[in-house]
Write a structure and sequence with these properties.
The complex is a heterodimer of chains A (583) and B (341). Helix content of chain A is 63%, strand content 1%. Chain A contains 23 helices and four strands. The two termini of chain B are 35 Å apart. In chain B, the strands form four sheets. In chain B, strands 2-5-8-1-9 form a five-stranded parallel sheet. Chain B has a two-stranded antiparallel ribbon with strand order 3-4. In chain B, strands 6-7 form a two-stranded antiparallel sheet. In chain B, helix 1 crosses helix 2 (34-46), helix 2 (34-46) packs across helix 11 (266-282) and helix 9 packs across helix 11. Classes of the chains: A mainly alpha (583), B alpha/beta (341).
Chain lengths: 583, 341
């Protein structure tokens, strides 16, 4: 063995020990970083706990995890940069072994002296007999980890002291989530899928705001503030509804409506489209698609195609997309209704007769559901052999082209026929029939917005301490006056679109319980009268309500104004008192 | 293990054994001065000179004589007195008549031409005479009448000085102090050791110790001593230690700034490393350890630290300053120190 071989043996042992030491140090720094990251996460949770208690807890997950990860990564980077050199590892091993610094001596490049070889041999022997040594992993810095966790967990588990931070005035009432169940309708907005990304984004934003309000209400929110937030949400929903039938679609809408005026059978659809009542229009189109008369179906199909082209030609992109989707749905609905009729005719007469009768006219949502139930019941009463026969008949009908010719639908129908032959057709058929009642995207969005607004309205009334009342028809969106009364008994108002209502209706009476002085209307900063805004007070429509808006008002402090707002002054006089102090 | 490796292991074992034998032999004559004996042996192996400081009657001269007996080296003694002339140390040319009655100068070698030279009570001679030792100690040669004469090898000066009787003495100049590798303090014996000394010295005189090492052995050990390995971090430590002894240095502790005028220079650092190598070798090791450096720091540095007026007024001793330096300067980098803790 020569000099380099002695050195090689030593270095091999040394590297094994050095790796262990360096890993332990890296772990030490990583844990310290994790501790600091946890402290950072607890600080974030603390900020949420004390300063932003209305933020939902779920929002904390990502920042907290990121803080911990960033801390750990920083610890690793720091540990890597501060990793021990060979010399330092040698000093550490020498100190741990309690020997005479032989490892450090062996690591030091020496001029060729006779004793160098002896040093290598002794150091190698020393390391070979030594157990793995590593520096202590835990230090005082690692106390930050349990400390961070100890601070983090209460911030996550305890209810934020919202009352301490936003202490309501004496006598002020708090609204809570369990008292306002109508808000749940807003959550459904998030689940509505539409083809139009703008609409989807708008619905998601509304659902997000609803969640935030729910978070606040879970902790308890002053009733007046809750009412103001709900009112703001309703304003936004109104805006969203209006945007679904916005002005830039009007030209396309008019042309599309014209296309539906050519046939008397399409009058209902024309009226609904003309009013921008997408929900109603969808229902009308469903009726037409499932109508027994071929002529009605053909007229509707052609009108839809022409209306779509006309809307596209006028640049009404959203309307054109909605009509295209309606066209697709129409095809599907029509084919499914034909399938149902075919099945009904194929069934034994005592089972098929009632079904054929119900399929005699157009199908609504409810009748579609009833048909699905009846069809399933009828199929369940068939024997396997009868089912197989039914499948065979269905297969022949498909081959003869009696059920239309779309490639995808063909495939679906073939599968249905096969499942009948296997004796499992009931479930498939039920699903297919249920799809008939699926609304178009635009209709779903509109329905969701209307339901949300309805829920908000109920919540608003509950927050005001009133019993919930059924939803009244909305101006412009309800059925027009000619079509009779709405659900609440009030008469529908005139339509906003080019409908042909008789304009004889009237809107709901404005309720007198709704004070919206706290609503924060969007102000145009270019306009004068900073700090003052026109709000709405039901008791005096059109009156001006003063809100501080953060701007200092001459002669009166913000606290004084807030004091007025939170005082026991009756609602109807509160504004006058405020104006007295801050005219 | 290779042949050369085995040979070096044998060499180290021999050095260790020789040191033990020397220690034991000298301890039989010099009672209770184990540290003094060891430090003198470090100095011998490192090839340096030693300054022994102690009260009269503590066996300084006997120590040197015993060492010469054990080593089988030529021994000469110079008793320093105020009227001692430099030529009394180095020697001189004298006029002699040869057989043909012609006159010629012949060199009369002084006591400096011994291998172990005892400069007894060196501080009693005048600085001029003391400086005669300078060339001999540093160059290991003397110049007489313009002619340079090398001194025998191994060559070692063992000077003694008495710290008590300061009247009529001349403090050694710094330049000369610096040439001593170690300054060894000879302590007074304890009661038990004194009893042993009384028993040993008042009875029949025993035979002188047998020679253990020849001059060739000593030279071989001195060469081997130079080959002892010192790790780079240990050299860094010595460097930091010496730097911290400079009162102007930023790393100097407060005591150094207050009590010192000059710190240990380059020779101080060299002395620490050389003495540490000798210590390691005598313990049979091939490399220097931090423990070696700590052990030799005081004898190697104490005579190189020049106390300031404030330091002398406070009664600060050089040993206190060295102890402070050892405490103040960390042996290992802070990160390693924390990892060990």
């Amino acid at each position: 063995m020569n000099d380099s071989a002695e050195r090689t043996v030593f270095l091999r042992s040394f590297r094994r020990h050095a790796q262990s030491v360096r890993r332990a140090r890296l772990l030490r720094f990583a844990l310290a970083g994790l501790g600091l990251g946890t402290c950072l996460a607890s600080a974030i949770a603390g900020v949420r706990f004390f300063l932003l208690p209305d933020r939902p807890l779920a929002e904390l997950t990502l920042p907290c995890v990121l803080a911990a990860l960033v801390g750990t990564a920083a610890g690793l980077v720091y540990g890597w940069r501060r990793r021990f050199s060979d010399e330092s590892v040698g000093l550490f091993l020498d100190a741990r072994l309690g020997q005479n610094d032989e490892i450090s001596a062996a690591l030091t490049p020496q001029e060729s002296t006779r004793l160098v070889q002896t040093v290598y041999e002794r150091a190698a022997k020393l390391l070979a007999g030594a157990e793995t040594m590593r520096p202590a992993i835990l230090s005082r810095a690692h106390l930050s980890l349990p400390l961070g966790l100890a601070l983090l967990l209460p911030s996550l588990l305890l209810t934020p002291p919202v009352h301490r931070l936003q202490k309501p005035a004496t006598g002020a009432e708090l609204a809570r989530m369990d008292e306002l169940p109508g808000l749940a309708a807003l959550e459904r907005l998030e689940r509505i899928e539409t083809l139009d990304p703008d609409t989807e984004r708008r619905l998601d934003a509304l659902a997000e705001r609803a969640k935030k309000l729910e978070g606040q209400l879970e902790n308890g929110l002053e009733k007046r503030a809750a009412q103001a937030s709900i009112a703001e949400l309703r304003d936004d929903i109104d805006t969203a509804i209006a945007e679904l039938t916005s002005a830039d679609q009007q030209a396309g809408l008019a042309s599309a409506v014209d296309e539906f005026s050519r046939s008397a059978a399409l009058r209902g659809a024309r009226d609904a489209l003309g009013r921008g009542d997408i929900v109603r229009f969808d229902a009308e189109m469903q009726s037409l698609a499932t109508a027994a008369e071929q002529s009605s179906r053909d007229a509707a199909r052609e009108a839809l195609e022409r209306a779509r082209d006309a809307a596209r030609a006028k640049g009404a992109r959203a309307l054109s997309s909605a009509l295209a989707e309606q066209q697709r749905l129409f095809e599907q609905r029509e084919r499914t209704s034909r399938l149902a009729r075919q099945l009904a005719s194929s069934l034994p007469s005592e089972l098929g007769k009632p079904l054929s009768d119900s399929l005699g006219g157009a199908l609504s949502d409810e009748s579609m559901q009833q048909l699905a139930d009846a069809m399933e019941k009828a199929l369940q009463s068939l024997s396997d052999e009868e089912l197989s026969t039914l499948g065979e008949r269905l297969r022949k009908a498909i081959e003869n082209g009696d059920l239309g010719s779309g490639p995808l639908d063909q495939e679906e129908l073939q599968r249905l026929a096969k499942s009948f032959q296997n004796g499992h057709g009931q479930k498939e058929l039920r699903e297919m029939l249920q799809r008939l009642s699926r609304q178009s995207d635009a209709a779903q969005a509109m329905r969701g917005l209307l339901d949300a607004d309805d829920g908000l309205r109920q919540a608003q009334r509950r927050a005001a301490g009133l019993l919930p009342v059924p939803r009244a028809a909305r101006q412009g969106m309800g059925t027009n006056g000619a079509e009779g009364n709405s659900e609440s008994g009030s008469e529908g108002g005139p339509g906003r679109g080019p409908g042909t209502g008789d304009h004889a209706g009237q809107t709901d009476p404005v309720s007198g319980d709704e004070l919206r002085a706290l609503a924060r209307p969007r102000l145009d900063p270019k306009l004068p009268l900073q700090g003052a805004a026109v709000g709405r007070t039901s008791a005096r429509p059109g009156e001006t309500a003063l809100t501080p808006q953060g701007a200092p008002l001459p002669g009166v402090s913000a606290e004084q104004l807030r004091g007025v707002e939170h005082s026991n002054i009756p609602e109807e006089y509160r504004e006058q008192v405020s104006r007295y102090f801050a005219p | 293990m290779t042949d050369s490796g085995a040979e070096m292991e044998r060499e180290l074992a021999r050095a260790h054994q020789a040191s033990r034998q020397l220690e034991q032999a000298m301890s039989r004559v010099i009672v209770g001065q184990t540290d003094v004996i060891r430090q003198t042996l470090w100095c011998l192996l490192a090839g340096g000179h030693v300054l022994l400081e102690g009260a009269p009657g503590l066996g300084k001269t006997l120590l040197v004589r015993t060492l010469s007996d054990c080593l089988h080296l030529s021994f000469s003694r110079i008793q320093f007195t105020p009227d001692l002339m430099p030529s009394d140390i180095t020697g001189t040319n004298v006029l002699v008549l040869d057989q043909r009655a012609s006159e010629r100068f012949e060199l009369y070698r002084g006591p400096i031409f011994g291998q172990l030279v005892l400069a007894d009570e060196i501080n009693r001679a005048t600085p001029k005479t003391q400086s005669a030792l300078l060339e001999a100690m540093q160059e290991r040669a003397v110049t007489i009448a313009g002619k340079r004469h090398p001194l025998p090898s191994p060559f070692m000066v063992l000077a003694t000085e008495n710290p008590i009787e300061m009247e009529g003495t001349y403090s050694l100049p710094e330049a000369q102090l610096d040439r001593f590798l170690l300054k060894v303090l000879v302590p007074s014996p304890g009661p038990d050791e004194l009893t042993d000394i009384l028993a040993l010295t008042t009875g029949e005189q025993g035979p002188p110790p047998e020679p253990i090492l020849s001059d060739a052995d000593v030279e071989r050990l001195q060469r081997l001593c130079r080959e002892v390995v010192v790790a780079r971090p240990l050299l860094d430590y010595v460097s930091r230690l010496v730097s911290a002894s400079d009162p102007q240095s930023d790393t100097a502790p407060a005591l150094v700034k207050q009590a010192l005028r000059y710190g240990a220079g380059v020779r101080g650092g060299q002395s620490v490393v050389l003495a540490a190598k000798a210590r390691a070798l005598l313990e049979g090791r091939a490399n220097v350890s931090f423990e070696d450096l700590r052990a030799v720091a005081k004898p190697a540095l104490r005579h190189r630290l020049l106390l300031s007026f404030a330091g002398e007024a406070d009664g600060t001793r050089s040993d206190d300053v060295v102890a402070k330096l050892l405490e103040h300067v960390p042996e290992r980098p802070p990160a390693v120190q924390r990892a060990i803790a």
